[in-house]
Amino acid sequence: MYIRESKTTNKKTGKVYIKHTLVESIRTAKGPRQKLVMTLGRLTLDRSLWKSLAFALESYLNGEQEVEHLDFFDLPEELIEEITHQRAIIDNNRKLKAEQDAIETKEEKDIREVDVNSLSVTESRSLGPELVANNAWELLEFESILQDCGFKEKEIALAAAVIWGRLINPGSDIATWRWLREKSSLNDFFNVDISRVHKDKVYGIADKLLKHKDKLESRLYKRQKDIFSKEDTLFLFDLTNFYFEGNSKANELAERGKSKEKRNQNCLVSLALIVDEDGFPVKSKVFEGNVNEPATLETILKECGVLDSSKKDELPFLPIIAMDRGIATSGNLKFLRSKGFPFTVIERANRTKEFRKEFQTLEGFTQITDSKGQAIHLKQIGSKVLCLSEAKAKKEKAMLDGRIKKTCKELDKLVRSVSRWSKSAAKRKEADKKKVKKIKDERSVSDKFHEGLGKIKKSCVNFDKLFKYQFDEKNGMLSYQVIEDKDNAELHGAYVIESNKVTGTEKQIWRLYMTLNNVENAFRAMKSDLGTRPVYHQGAERTKAHLFLSILAYHMLRNIEYRYAEEGEAKRWSTLKEILSTHQRVRVSWSDANNKKWFKLLSAKPEVKHRDIYFKLGVKNKLQDHIYST
Fold first, then answer.
1. What distance in Å separates the CA atoms of residue 531 and residue 172, rounded to the nearest whole number?
2. C-alpha 453: how far from its chain's center?
3. Among 54, 76, 256, 555, which residue's beta carbon has the most beta carbons within 10 A?
4. What are the backbone angles phi and psi of residue 274, rounded to the nearest 5°?
5. In which region does residue 31 sit, left (phi positive, over 0), alpha (psi from -120 to 50) or beta (all else)?
6. Residue 210: which pLDDT band, with cuts at 50, 70 and 90?
7. How far is CA 453 from CA 405, 411, 416, 578, 612, in A?
8. Are strands 467-472 and 343-345 parallel, antiparallel or unpaired?
């Protein structure tokens, strides 16, 4: 056996993900092949120790308790720790298998005559993602919370259907209904049959969940804190929007605005969200699509109870507020100061020019590295932290170079056009002298030049700071040159974090602000992993219900991802779901010697990759196999 390293690259971000597996070579009819023995996560061991680790694990898997040919106690400490960790995983997998075998052994043998030609498998249903969803559902005590909200047994099962559906099979409500009927084993997890409910029941249960929005959000967040023993320290606030399909004329929330996804031709609906420093949702609020971003802050803080003395028991503290510059207006900062809120923000107004000298010399700056190993330079001046990111500087320079290159191409086209227009104007004058039919397009060269230049300026930000041009109308000549913008170039990658009543070093304040990525991750997950976009509903309440289902599903998603990351291997839910999609629950049918038809509903045995995920999340399959006849 040996250890294999695999690398995958995110095509959008360029980030490289590494994982390690223990594999062995086996002989097959088609030649040597590699067989996966177990996943090891991402190893931090030096490569020179991989061979020893592989040998130790192979020996343990083969039943040898001690490592032959190696003095276990003379091994490097880091190798011993890794061997111990991986042995624990092997022991747990063996325990799970032994428990499953014990269950199977306890079952009385049921030997029958079977017409093997009649054997068939029908109604193959997804099981793996549902097992993980049920695990999160039980941990978050959804059933108890819904019972307290007055939900009956069948309504609880329907609520699970729409929330799990958003988590496992993102899409519209009608897509969730089809998934429940045709693809999922969800019905087997509940004591009531909801596999054939009418589609209107799916819409109805979403509306009922919305009626209990405040209680559900409050109880679920409290439960997340209890599970992970979390303390309230930081609230991250941001706003995003989702686009509608259709004209949505009857929807009072549907308004045109600036789309985060460049879908400005569609009507929009906005969602304001507060999450804590670990990305768990605290409070959400739906607004019209054209809402002014800064105006949402005070509204949602009031709904959290921090501005209402009558709700002090609900949220008896003032959390640190972190916002990006889209919401950090001078008015909002003044509001936060007046209420005594500690906060950390990048102001909407660009403050970097005020500290040009500091950014030029980097005197007194402290250098740190971020999670990607990229250098960040920090300096604290009063309530401000000056930040210079080398990676951000490279990105901004690359974006500027790209914009200049694109504009140069457009200007080159305009140069050729000016020359062509000038020649056409000369021909037109000649035609006028000879009194022949006039050439079309009576506009002057100057008019056409300024029209073309206006289009270029509109598409190129800061055109006048980047380009200098000369236009000679008489000779039909246009020339230009690129201006080196030294002032802005010196500030590439620079930004200023403003804080108030936040104690700590510049590094601590910077890391505090950078947790804003968690709310951005929440929006990304809701838009992609949970399929919240586009919105098809034509009514405002249905739109709110649609978005709230994503909030509830995100509670489960974040709970799953957070627990999995705590086991030392971070994976997105979409990746886990894809791996688990091959674990199925099926219905087997056959005929006996008397031609009687029999059926057995059973879960497929999980593969190694499935068991690894179940072990890390503490998932157990509680579904019973059962046999019946017609």
1. 8
2. 41
3. 555
4. -110, 125
5. left
6. very high
7. 16, 8, 13, 50, 61
8. unpaired
Least confident span in 245-249, 430-434, 557-561:
430-434
The first and second tokens of residue 624, run together, are 């019973």
pLDDT (tens digit, 9 = 90+) per residue, 211-255?
A: 999 999 999 999 999 998 877 667 777 878 888 887 778 888 888
Q: Coil, strand or helix: which one is 468?
A: strand
The Cβ of residue 408 has, within 10 Å, a number of other Cβ atoms equal to 15
Is the torsion defined by CA of 574, 576, 582, 588 positive or negative?
A: negative
Q: Nearest CA to 216 among 549, 580, 559?
A: 549
CB 322 within 8 A of CB 460: no
Radius of gyration of the chain (CA): 32
Residues written for the chain = 630
Place of tokens 């919401």: 327
Buried-exposed string 34-54: b where 16+ CB fall within 10 A, e elsewhere: eeebbbbbebebeeebbebbb
Nearest Cα neighbor of 277 from 228, 242, 244, 349 is 228
Residue with tokens 């029209």: 451
Contact in structure between 523 and 238 (CB atoms under 8 Å): yes
The encoded tokens of residue 359 equal 């950014």
Residue type, 452: G
Contact of 562 with 570, CB cutoff 8 Å: no
What is the distance between the alpha carbons of residues 270 and 255, in angstroms, rounded to a whole number? Answer: 9
Q: How far apart are CA 547 and CA 541, in angstroms?
A: 10
Contact between 267 and 253 (Cβ < 8 Å): no
| pTM of structure | 0.69
Going from the C-alpha of 391 to that of each of 33, 126, 155, 234, 476, the distances in angstroms are 42, 42, 51, 26, 44
Give the sign of the dihedral formed by CA 423, CA 428, CA 431, CA 436. Answer: positive
Q: Which residue, among 236, 244, 249, 292, has the nearest Cα to 265 in the 3D structure?
A: 244
